Amino acid sequence: MQRKKTANILLVVFTISSLFFSGCAFFQSKSQPQNFKLTIMHMNDTHSHLEPTNTTLKFEGVQTYADLGGFAKVASKIKEVRKSRPDSLLLHAGDAVQGSFYFTKYSGQPEYEMLSMLKVDAMEPGNHEFDRGPGFLADVSKYIDFSIVSSNIDASGDEKLKKIIKPYVIKEVAGQKIGIFGLITPETAVNSNPGKILKFGDEKQAAERTVKELEKAGVNKIVAITHLGYNQDIELAKAVSGIDVIVGGHSHTLLGDFSAVGLNSEGAYPTAITNKAGEKVFIVQSWEWAKAVGVVDVEFDDSGHAVKASGSANIILADNFKQKDKDGKKVDVSPETKASILKQIEENPSIEILADDPEAVAKLAPYKAGVEAMQKLVVVKIAEPLLHIRKPGKHSSGADLPGGSQVAPVICESMLWKANKSSLKAQIAILNGGGIRMDIPEGDLTVAGVNELLPFQNKLILLELTGKEVKTAIETGLADADGSGGGFTYVAGMRYSADSSKPAWQRLVKAEYKNDSGKWILLNDSAKYRIITNSYLSGGGNGYDVFKNSKGYRYDTGFSDAEAFMEYAKQADTIHRPIDTEVTMR
User: Fold this and answer.
1) Handedness of CA 274, 275, 278, 284 (dihedral sign)
2) Given the DSSP bridges, would you call strands 147-149 and 165-166 parallel, antiparallel or unpaired?
3) Of 22, 26, 233, 542, which is the most buried if we count CB atoms within 10 A?
4) What is the 3-state composition of the chain as percent helix, strand, coil, each rounded to the nearest 5?
């Protein structure tokens, strides 16, 4: 009996002990803080590209032409993410406008209406939001149903803009406060047209001030939307404590590994930086032209620090692909090749094919119809035929063109005109002969004709080069004259002479530029010059590695070559054949 009693006592003690310790474990696990998870979708530098952009990718090493992005597919992606991850934000890092005929015709209305339809939470204006003066944002604000944030724009002198542009906004997601503030490049003061009233402050000082304000308001999860550029974002992350995530723009940077489809990126997605306080900062950017939607999943600890982040810039495609046949003509790929391409896409988590979102298609339809009608509009009268040839020689009509193309110098002049109309102080324009696709016949040149003339949607890029680098660029074009001549150099704001009998890279005889007084001055090897060229050449196209590798100032204007030419042509009223191409070959 005693043994049974003892056993019962031991059983009770054991049971109480078990309950006690399991209870402790229960209360301990219940009180342990859980990391907060936030999804941030983001876009930048969409530049009025509401329609898909035809871009070259590589599948199994073969150049393939594919339609990327467009707002109808972007809308599908955003809705897909929101369905699976409702605790999310959608941010835009600036330059929503300037770069397609949608902006030319509608002055920003469809761009901002589409962003509002996508339910953007906040946007940092880019420098191109000020190209049409400080009143532009006020004019389009009626189409904007989201927050505009920028902590280093002082709009206190402008009654309308100070109501529109706020330093930051606080969003609540799943019961958590997220502070979102913006930063714009201070160079906006000189590379756009913001007027004299708006002031653009130092980005690091503004960031430090704003982070303190947000922390004082009890916000410990802070996201910066910046229009500064990828390298500047890295410096910002290192220098300023308290920022958890930087959603960037301005440099049109592709992050992540896309080598499988022949695309070069500049860093990891996200790029993780340790700031001066030893905390992690995650930097993301999503390329350009609505070709991709960035999706980053961020974990915050109970102190509000971002401790983990993962995701990708998701490139969105249509399901139509072309490759060149043996005659160099672009044709639809065979069913077998398409099946192989689709398999490669399916195996790549950062690339996907999406259908158009019906709501976005319907929203865009009337604007699309207007742009298509616009294609029939006359831009300018052409006084006499302008013949195009890639390099000096005989035109297909039999005409001798010892100075080369009669079209290219006019295009170069339009590039230089557009750059300087935008206060960029360019001195020289450089263009490749292969960037132009046709003669310009006498008579009326329409918008559609301009698109046929300049079909590649190249952007204008401003570079600062030494005189020696400019000469190397010209030698590059002269060397290419041995082949197809697609890289042959045409210019405005300068002139050069060359000897074709000499070996490649030794052909340039003389190179001069026109100074502010209109005098021709020899290029100085060590002096610096501001060059406007196209994005194809600036990226090393046609062998122009001197542009690609240049270490001087580089600025993506966001203007397309076709857009620049149209503006130039309209103010010219009538275009005549150039008297001199500024190219002398012997």
Assistant:
1) negative
2) parallel
3) 233
4) 35, 30, 35
| Span 525-579, pLDDT tens digits | 999 999 999 998 998 888 999 999 999 999 988 888 999 999 999 999 899 999 9
Task: Output phi, psi for 401, to 5 deg.
Answer: -125, 80
4: Cβ–Cβ under 8 A, 6 or more apart, which residues? none
* Tens digit of each residue's pLDDT (9 = 90 or more) over 51-107: 999 888 999 999 999 999 999 999 999 999 999 999 999 999 999 998 888 988 899
Whether residue 294 is found in the same domain as residue 419: no
Q: What is the CATH number of the domain that holds 91?
A: 3.60.21.10
Q: Which of 403, 425, 347, 423 is nearest to 579 (CA)?
A: 403
Query: Could you tell me the CA-to-CA distances from 6 to 12, 14, 15, 18, 100 in Å, in that order?
Result: 10, 12, 14, 18, 90
Distance CA 322, CA 57 (A): 10
24 within domain boundaries: no
Distance, in Å, from the CA atom of 153 to the CA atom of 577, rounded to the nearest integer, reads 45
Q: How many domains does the chain have?
A: 2
Predicted TM-score (pTM) of the model is 0.79
Q: At what angle do helices 230-239 and 203-216 cross, to 10 degrees?
A: 50
